[in-house]
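Notes continue from the previous slide.

Worked example: a multi-chain complex. Inputs as given:
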Amino acid sequence: MANYPWLRIPASAVDQAARELLGWQLTANGVTVRVTEVEAYSGLGQDPASHAHRGVTGRNEVMFGPAGMLYVYQIYGMHFCANVVCGEAGVASAVLLRAGEVVEGLDTARARRPAAKNDRDLAAGPAKLMQVLALDRRANGTSVVDGTGPATLRPPPTPVPAGDIAAGPRVGVTAAHDVPWRFWIAGDPTVSAYRRHTARPRNAK
DNA sequence: TATTCGATCCAT
DNA sequence: TGGATCGAATAC
Protein backbone atom coordinates (compact mmCIF):
# COMPACT_ATOMS: atom_id res chain seq x y z
CA MET A 1 0.00 0.00 0.00
CA ALA A 2 1.23 3.40 -0.93
CA ASN A 3 2.24 6.06 1.54
CA TYR A 4 -0.39 8.76 1.97
CA PRO A 5 1.14 11.80 3.69
CA TRP A 6 -2.05 13.85 3.33
CA LEU A 7 -3.89 11.33 5.51
CA ARG A 8 -2.03 12.77 8.50
CA ILE A 9 -2.79 16.41 7.82
CA PRO A 10 -5.14 17.71 10.53
CA ALA A 11 -8.67 18.69 9.53
CA SER A 12 -7.86 22.27 10.47
CA ALA A 13 -5.33 22.38 7.60
CA VAL A 14 -7.55 20.83 4.94
CA ASP A 15 -6.35 23.48 2.46
CA GLN A 16 -2.87 21.95 2.77
CA ALA A 17 -4.31 18.51 2.12
CA ALA A 18 -6.03 19.87 -0.97
CA ARG A 19 -2.73 21.21 -2.33
CA GLU A 20 -1.04 17.88 -1.69
CA LEU A 21 -3.71 15.94 -3.56
CA LEU A 22 -2.92 17.73 -6.83
CA GLY A 23 -1.13 15.40 -9.21
CA TRP A 24 -2.35 12.20 -7.52
CA GLN A 25 -3.87 9.60 -9.80
CA LEU A 26 -7.31 8.12 -9.25
CA THR A 27 -8.07 4.80 -10.92
CA ALA A 28 -11.51 3.23 -11.25
CA ASN A 29 -13.19 0.92 -13.74
CA GLY A 30 -10.36 0.90 -16.24
CA VAL A 31 -9.65 4.63 -16.35
CA THR A 32 -6.98 6.66 -14.54
CA VAL A 33 -7.25 10.39 -13.97
CA ARG A 34 -4.50 12.72 -12.77
CA VAL A 35 -6.04 15.26 -10.41
CA THR A 36 -5.47 18.81 -11.68
CA GLU A 37 -8.02 20.83 -9.70
CA VAL A 38 -9.46 20.53 -6.19
CA GLU A 39 -11.40 22.51 -3.60
CA ALA A 40 -11.07 22.36 0.19
CA TYR A 41 -14.05 22.36 2.54
CA SER A 42 -13.56 22.83 6.24
CA GLY A 43 -15.34 20.70 8.81
CA LEU A 44 -14.76 23.06 11.68
CA GLY A 45 -18.24 24.54 11.40
CA GLN A 46 -16.90 27.85 10.16
CA ASP A 47 -17.32 27.11 6.45
CA PRO A 48 -20.83 28.01 5.23
CA ALA A 49 -20.05 26.49 1.83
CA SER A 50 -19.53 23.02 3.29
CA HIS A 51 -22.24 20.38 3.22
CA ALA A 52 -21.29 19.63 6.82
CA HIS A 53 -21.83 23.17 8.01
CA ARG A 54 -25.12 22.36 9.74
CA GLY A 55 -23.93 19.14 11.35
CA VAL A 56 -24.40 15.45 10.57
CA THR A 57 -27.13 14.47 8.11
CA GLY A 58 -27.86 11.30 6.19
CA ARG A 59 -26.10 12.67 3.16
CA ASN A 60 -22.88 13.94 4.70
CA GLU A 61 -22.18 11.40 7.44
CA VAL A 62 -19.12 9.90 5.73
CA MET A 63 -17.50 13.34 5.91
CA PHE A 64 -17.36 12.82 9.66
CA GLY A 65 -15.60 9.47 9.29
CA PRO A 66 -11.91 8.67 8.89
CA ALA A 67 -9.70 10.18 6.19
CA GLY A 68 -9.28 8.34 2.91
CA MET A 69 -12.99 7.70 2.31
CA LEU A 70 -14.96 9.01 -0.66
CA TYR A 71 -17.89 11.30 0.05
CA VAL A 72 -20.07 11.09 -3.07
CA TYR A 73 -23.20 13.19 -3.45
CA GLN A 74 -25.72 13.78 -6.20
CA ILE A 75 -26.27 17.30 -7.50
CA TYR A 76 -29.03 18.79 -9.67
CA GLY A 77 -30.76 15.41 -9.70
CA MET A 78 -28.43 14.00 -12.32
CA HIS A 79 -24.74 14.43 -11.54
CA PHE A 80 -22.37 12.97 -8.98
CA CYS A 81 -19.36 14.62 -7.38
CA ALA A 82 -16.70 13.11 -5.12
CA ASN A 83 -14.70 14.37 -2.16
CA VAL A 84 -11.78 12.74 -0.42
CA VAL A 85 -12.40 12.91 3.33
CA CYS A 86 -9.42 14.42 5.16
CA GLY A 87 -8.36 15.00 8.74
CA GLU A 88 -9.17 13.14 11.91
CA ALA A 89 -12.46 11.29 12.32
CA GLY A 90 -15.18 13.41 13.87
CA VAL A 91 -14.26 16.56 11.93
CA ALA A 92 -15.88 16.79 8.50
CA SER A 93 -13.10 18.26 6.38
CA ALA A 94 -12.97 17.12 2.76
CA VAL A 95 -11.44 17.88 -0.62
CA LEU A 96 -13.64 18.02 -3.71
CA LEU A 97 -12.06 16.51 -6.82
CA ARG A 98 -12.92 19.13 -9.43
CA ALA A 99 -11.02 18.14 -12.54
CA GLY A 100 -8.39 15.82 -13.93
CA GLU A 101 -6.45 14.65 -16.94
CA VAL A 102 -7.14 11.20 -18.31
CA VAL A 103 -3.81 9.37 -18.36
CA GLU A 104 -4.99 5.78 -18.84
CA GLY A 105 -7.98 4.20 -20.55
CA LEU A 106 -8.42 7.05 -23.00
CA ASP A 107 -10.69 5.11 -25.34
CA THR A 108 -12.95 4.02 -22.49
CA ALA A 109 -13.08 7.58 -21.21
CA ARG A 110 -14.05 8.93 -24.64
CA ALA A 111 -16.83 6.37 -24.91
CA ARG A 112 -18.19 7.42 -21.52
CA ARG A 113 -18.12 11.13 -22.38
CA PRO A 114 -19.63 11.52 -25.86
CA ALA A 115 -20.32 15.19 -25.16
CA ALA A 116 -16.63 15.99 -24.73
CA LYS A 117 -15.33 17.97 -27.69
CA ASN A 118 -11.70 17.07 -27.04
CA ASP A 119 -9.61 15.00 -24.65
CA ARG A 120 -8.87 17.77 -22.22
CA ASP A 121 -12.60 18.22 -21.63
CA LEU A 122 -13.09 14.57 -20.66
CA ALA A 123 -12.76 15.21 -16.93
CA ALA A 124 -12.73 19.01 -16.79
CA GLY A 125 -15.36 19.25 -14.05
CA PRO A 126 -16.36 17.36 -10.89
CA ALA A 127 -19.29 15.50 -12.47
CA LYS A 128 -17.39 14.86 -15.69
CA LEU A 129 -14.58 13.30 -13.70
CA MET A 130 -17.06 10.92 -12.06
CA GLN A 131 -18.59 10.04 -15.42
CA VAL A 132 -15.22 9.16 -16.92
CA LEU A 133 -14.48 6.89 -13.96
CA ALA A 134 -18.00 5.40 -14.06
CA LEU A 135 -18.52 6.12 -10.37
CA ASP A 136 -21.81 6.99 -8.71
CA ARG A 137 -23.45 6.96 -5.27
CA ARG A 138 -22.35 3.36 -4.74
CA ALA A 139 -18.81 4.67 -4.22
CA ASN A 140 -19.95 6.75 -1.25
CA GLY A 141 -18.21 5.64 1.95
CA THR A 142 -15.63 3.48 0.16
CA SER A 143 -11.89 3.85 0.66
CA VAL A 144 -9.41 5.09 -1.95
CA VAL A 145 -6.37 4.11 0.11
CA ASP A 146 -6.74 0.43 1.03
CA GLY A 147 -7.89 -1.21 -2.20
CA THR A 148 -11.28 -2.27 -0.82
CA GLY A 149 -13.29 0.20 -2.89
CA PRO A 150 -13.94 0.68 -6.62
CA ALA A 151 -11.45 3.57 -6.79
CA THR A 152 -7.79 3.77 -5.78
CA LEU A 153 -5.62 6.87 -5.32
CA ARG A 154 -1.94 6.60 -6.16
CA PRO A 155 0.96 9.05 -5.65
CA PRO A 156 2.05 11.27 -8.53
CA PRO A 157 4.94 9.91 -10.66
CA THR A 158 6.45 13.38 -10.39
CA PRO A 159 5.28 15.65 -7.55
CA VAL A 160 3.70 18.96 -8.47
CA PRO A 161 6.09 21.81 -7.55
CA ALA A 162 4.57 24.16 -5.00
CA GLY A 163 5.25 27.04 -7.37
CA ASP A 164 2.97 25.48 -9.98
CA ILE A 165 -0.09 25.56 -7.73
CA ALA A 166 -2.55 28.40 -8.26
CA ALA A 167 -5.37 29.36 -5.86
CA GLY A 168 -8.66 31.21 -6.16
CA PRO A 169 -12.27 31.29 -4.97
CA ARG A 170 -14.30 28.09 -5.06
CA VAL A 171 -16.62 27.49 -8.00
CA GLY A 172 -20.38 27.50 -7.81
CA VAL A 173 -20.70 27.97 -4.08
CA THR A 174 -23.28 30.42 -2.84
CA ALA A 175 -21.31 31.42 0.24
CA ALA A 176 -17.79 32.41 1.21
CA HIS A 177 -16.75 33.77 -2.18
CA ASP A 178 -13.78 35.39 -0.48
CA VAL A 179 -12.14 32.13 0.63
CA PRO A 180 -9.46 31.13 -1.95
CA TRP A 181 -9.73 27.39 -1.42
CA ARG A 182 -9.80 26.26 -5.01
CA PHE A 183 -6.40 24.97 -6.08
CA TRP A 184 -5.24 23.94 -9.51
CA ILE A 185 -2.11 23.15 -11.47
CA ALA A 186 -1.23 26.44 -13.14
CA GLY A 187 -1.56 26.37 -16.90
CA ASP A 188 -3.04 22.88 -17.06
CA PRO A 189 -5.57 22.72 -19.91
CA THR A 190 -7.88 20.28 -18.10
CA VAL A 191 -8.78 22.70 -15.31
CA SER A 192 -12.49 23.50 -15.35
CA ALA A 193 -13.72 26.93 -16.38
CA TYR A 194 -14.45 29.25 -13.48
CA ARG A 195 -18.02 30.34 -13.30
CA ARG A 196 -19.61 32.29 -10.51
CA HIS A 197 -22.73 30.79 -9.01
CA THR A 198 -25.79 32.20 -10.76
CA ALA A 199 -28.26 33.19 -8.09
CA ARG A 200 -31.81 32.17 -8.79
CA PRO A 201 -34.42 34.91 -8.41
CA ARG A 202 -35.74 34.98 -4.87
CA ASN A 203 -39.41 35.30 -4.18
CA ALA A 204 -40.43 38.92 -4.40
CA LYS A 205 -41.89 40.24 -1.20
C1' DT B 1 -46.00 15.91 4.41
C1' DA B 2 -44.71 19.97 1.32
C1' DT B 3 -41.56 22.90 -0.77
C1' DT B 4 -37.17 24.55 -2.02
C1' DC B 5 -32.89 24.37 -4.26
C1' DG B 6 -28.23 22.80 -5.48
C1' DA B 7 -19.92 22.18 -4.55
C1' DT B 8 -23.22 20.90 -12.69
C1' DC B 9 -23.44 20.16 -17.59
C1' DC B 10 -24.89 21.14 -22.11
C1' DA B 11 -27.04 23.38 -25.98
C1' DT B 12 -28.64 27.86 -27.32
C1' DT C 1 -28.29 32.25 -20.40
C1' DG C 2 -31.59 28.88 -19.18
C1' DG C 3 -33.40 24.18 -18.77
C1' DA C 4 -32.92 19.42 -17.16
C1' DT C 5 -34.24 16.61 -13.06
C1' DC C 6 -34.61 14.55 -8.23
C1' DG C 7 -33.27 13.63 -3.56
C1' DA C 8 -31.82 15.72 0.68
C1' DA C 9 -32.55 19.44 3.67
C1' DT C 10 -35.54 22.45 5.63
C1' DA C 11 -39.91 24.59 6.34
C1' DC C 12 -44.62 23.80 7.83
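Summary box: The longest helix of chain A spans residues 14-21. Residues 54, 57-59, 73-74, 76-78, 198 of chain A lie near DNA strand C (CB under 10 Å from a C1').
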